[in-house]
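Q: I have 112 residues here and want to know how they pack in 3D. Can you give me a structure?
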Amino acid sequence: MPLVWKGIFVEIVSRFISGDYALSSRPVGVCEITPDRAEFIAAQIASYGDDLIELSDETWSRSVYVWMDGYWEVIIDLCMKDQGVSDLALLAKIYEGEDEKFIFKVESVYVP
C-alpha cells in the first residue's frame, strides 16, 4: 500500500470510529459519502458484533490494491477491539486527479 494513501485511510477509519459515516469532516481529497451509503456502512459495522478500532500495522500486510480501468480498487481489512485485524473490509476506489493528487471514494464496508 503506498504510504501516501495510508494516512488518508487512517483518517477515514477515525471518522467512522467517531460516528461520522458520511465523512462530513473528511480529509482533503476524500469524497463525501451519500446518506444511504453512510447508513449502510454504519449498519455493517454495528452488525459485525465488535467495536471498530484504529488500523494497525498488520492491516497493511493484508490489504490489497489493483489497477482497474481508470482507478485503483483498494480493499483494507478493518481492525476490531476483540479480534484485531478482521475480515470486515473497507472497499474504496482511488482516482488520479489533477496535479498528481488522488481522489478517494469509499464504496462499502463488507465481509468479502
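Q: Anything worth noting?
A: The mean pLDDT is 95. Residues 3-110 form one domain.
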